[in-house]
Design brief:
2 helices; 289 residues; 18 strands; globular; 53% strand; Porin; 3% helix; mainly beta
């Protein structure tokens, strides 16, 4: 099973309303910002793991995704600081036509999901996602999952020692990614900034992403019911740099590279063709608008 979209990555058009000049003051008012925003990104990688579960590790793997957001509510005070509604689509496209039994054989996975994100005081954000994991090439049957993700932007509290921690609770609601039963998994992660190379036009940031995948109930279970709480850990180094030579009217573009290693429990090691440790390298080109 897995995640992301079919040929559809249509990026959406937004209207920006120009503010009227105030002749009496002889100065222009700021243009009202749009309540819509979005992101598009193309990732190219050597291997596709879904929470430690091997999907493909040969051939070319391209994973484009897009999300659109609507700023529904914003406040400087109170328990709820902002509410964002959105929707996204994520795809995994494989030159090896992984497990294909229908056309288009190269589109292994397309995931569709609505989301709601709630900003809380002190830099916390709680987001809810509902995923439909579909396979256009019929490699697997559609599965569904409910996710609750809590993130903490601790940069204001900890400064240069910020860890950017997050936790995601994944609840399978229809079919399962692995094993005979629908289950519950927990992923925990941090991504501290190791170093930022300051440059007027091309500041380069280096971060250290670390993620641990755990089974709460029936998430990595064997046929006989046995299950280890620990599933996998990934760790590595990411680099990202903005691309200011792209006109601002086309959005804020950036490029990144991530290199990580995955370490698996015995069950996932067997699924990964006997490799307990496996490297992953991903290049990313993205835009926010």
């Amino acid at each position: 099973m897995d995640r992301r979209s079919a040929l559809a990555l249509h990026v959406l058009a937004f209207a920006a309303l120009a503010g009227l000049a105030t002749p009496a003051l002889a100065q222009e008012e700021e243009e009202p910002s749009s309540r819509f925003s979005g992101a598009f990104q193309l990732d190219i990688t050597n291997v596709y793991f879904f929470r430690g579960l091997l999907q493909e590790r040969d051939g070319l793997i391209a994973q484009p995704w897009a999300e659109l957001y609507f700023d529904a509510y914003s406040s400087e005070t109170g328990f709820i600081r902002n509410v964002t509604l959105g929707a996204g689509v994520w795809n995994s496209m494989h030159s090896r036509e992984t497990l294909a039994s229908d056309e288009p054989g190269w589109i292994y996975e397309t995931d569709w999901y609505p989301l709601i994100s709630i900003g809380l005081p002190q830099g916390f954000t709680l987001s809810t996602y509902y995923y439909w994991y579909t396979s256009p090439n019929d490699a697997f049957r559609t599965a569904q999952e409910l996710n609750f993700k809590l993130e903490w932007d601790d940069s204001e509290a900890l400064g240069r020692f910020a860890l950017a921690p997050w936790a995601n609770l994944a609840i399978e609601t229809n079919r399962t990614a692995f094993g005979p039963d629908e289950g519950v998994g927990l992923q925990l992660g941090v991504e501290p900034t190791l170093y930022t190379f300051e440059h007027e036009r091309y500041p380069v940031s280096f971060t250290v992403p670390v993620e641990v995948g755990l089974a709460i109930d029936d998430y990595y279970e064997e046929e006989d019911g046995r299950e280890d709480t620990f599933g996998y850990v990934s760790f590595g180094l990411s680099m990202s740099v903005p691309l200011p030579f792209v006109p601002e009217s086309l959005g804020a573009w950036s490029f990144g590279v991530t290199a990580k290693g995955y370490y698996f429990n015995d069950t996932l090691e067997e699924l990964n063709e006997g490799d307990e440790l496996y490297p992953m390298v991903m290049g990313s080109l993205g835009v926010e608008f």
